[in-house]
Design a protein that fits this description.
Distance between the termini: 103 Å
Order of helices and strands: HHHEEEEE
Largest sheet: 3 strands, mixed
């Protein structure tokens, strides 16, 4: 604690010393409040007694088995949803002006395989719809 200045002594430095003392007291009070806030008691939630008493005997094998079971369940649910979806097929035809050989310009083309197919799931009016999108592959004959 800083020592007290004599009351009968007045000079320009006394006013500055008193201002600095007040500022130091203010900063010490702020620092004490911040220390209480950071290092003071916390209201942390304690774990339930049942969890404290229950032995945690989960081995890596048990965790692996639980993860495999969860994965299998997710796959089964996804398969059920996909099987129950309304299915529609959308075929994107190539326009007539695009059905030409780029090399010779011939229009005599034949199908080449199944074409590229994409499955898209859409959510329409509270029910899933499965759309099969495809295009026709054609080559010159």
């Amino acid at each position: 604690m800083p020592r007290e200045l004599p009351q009968d002594h007045f000079c320009p430095w006394r006013e500055e010393a008193e201002e600095l003392r007040e500022r130091m007291m203010s900063l010490e009070a702020k620092m004490a409040a911040l220390e209480r806030r950071v290092f003071g008691r916390k209201t942390e939630k304690l774990p339930p007694v049942a969890k404290e008493l229950k032995p945690s005997s989960t081995s890596p094998e048990d965790e692996a088995a639980r993860a495999a079971s969860a994965l299998q369940t997710r796959r089964e649910r996804a398969a059920r949803k996909a099987a129950g979806a309304v299915e529609r097929e959308v075929l994107h035809e190539v326009p007539a002006e695009g059905r030409r050989c780029p090399a010779c310009g011939s229009e005599a083309l034949k199908s080449l395989g199944e074409g590229r197919r994409t499955v898209v799931y859409e959510y329409v009016k509270a029910r899933p719809i499965r759309s099969l999108l495809g295009s026709a592959n054609q080559v010159r004959t």
